[in-house]
Amino acid sequence: DDMSKLLNLDEIEAVATKKISKKAWSYYYSAGDDLVSKKLNNTVYRQILLRPRVFVDCTNCDTSTTLLGHKVGLPLYVSPAAMARLGHPAGEHGIAQGISSFGALQVISNNASMTPEQIVKDSAPGQIFGWQLYVQNDRLKTEKMVARINGMADKIKFICLTLDAPVPGKREDDERFSEAGADLPVPSATKNEQKAKKKAGPGGVGKQLFAGTAADLTWKATLPWLAKHTNMPIVLKGIQTHEDAYLAAQYAPQVKAIILSNHGGRALDTAPPAVHTLLEIRKYCPEVLSKIEVWVDGGIKRGTDVVKALCLGAKAVGVGRAALYGLGAGGPEGVERTFEILKAEIETCMRLLGVEKVSELGPKYINSRAVERD
Ligand code: FNR
């Protein structure tokens, strides 16, 4: 297949939808209840307008930035998403290979379908990763896994603790089609675990993956416990209100970043898109933006979406489904094409705005009045 013929992320998604199993598609596509948050995640960006300046030299354009002190080629990263091998045998390693030439960051899911060692293998010099944690009821299991990640510090630079899905949302497409394909590809699971997964049967891939995930995490108990087991910076994922953003910033410097996210609309439907939370933070506790890094994800389909989030104060923008669809459409090359398109769109947007560097982006380049609520 000639990936270069695909011109945007919707076209890549359409190709992936045809190629991957119904089970993989329904797991990737699905979201909570009526998909209100999932859809709004994207449409909210359409309502924000850009304010381009003219008569500015835009010969040069530099998309590089730093994340947690590490230099990256793009303010765009791969969000942690489970089960990449469900859509393509190259799996999460294929995603790492696909983005390797961009110097982009990848966050490895707790529920990845390959081991972290397999995923980072053969990555480019300077290519960095984060590892996403779902704390398990069996804390010892989590402590062992965290110790293993601590030992991969040359490649894995932080632990991303996801908080917005202590239980999975009600994902009806996933429930409907969860038996329409091969068994789940689980990494290095024991035979007993494999059997247990197969027996779990209907209910959706999401529900099967969440078995054993702890629902009893708290600010007071969980962060000190985690700090005892790792010196890595902690990134809190799934913040959806200015109150929680403010609280998270109180835990700096160990908490070095938060990710404003509603889990791609897959957890609580009608939870706010990251853009709304970012606007709340700007209004009620703007100091958070300078105390810790604020990253966002959800609904990203265009370079202009990325640039708008950066203008609102985000330091980085994640893509979940786009990476999985890229992989499903064309393996590592499909992921590479996805990032090539987004990078080119980001550059075009920056140039036409009259901006040379990521650090110049700010609120003066957008009009977000149509999405401001209060
Ligand atoms: C996810 N997401 C997710 N998040 C997380 O912290 N751990 C995980 O294991 C997963 N798994 C997962 C699987 C699939 C198939 C999807 C689509 C998403 C959420 C993910 O990190 C991110 O928040 C959203 O995907 C962002 O929205 P978009 O880019 O998919 O619209």
Automatic annotation (TrEMBL):
Cofactor dependence: heme b; FMN
Signal peptide: none
Every FMN hydroxy acid dehydrogenase domain range: 1-371
Enzyme class: oxidoreductase
GO molecular function: heme binding; L-lactate dehydrogenase (cytochrome) activity; metal ion binding
Quaternary structure, from the entry: Homotetramer.
UniProt family annotation: In the C-terminal section; belongs to the FMN-dependent alpha-hydroxy acid dehydrogenase family. Belongs to the cytochrome b5 family.
Protein's recorded name: L-lactate dehydrogenase (cytochrome)
Organism in which the protein naturally occurs: Coleophoma cylindrospora
Portion held of the full protein: 99 to 472 of 491
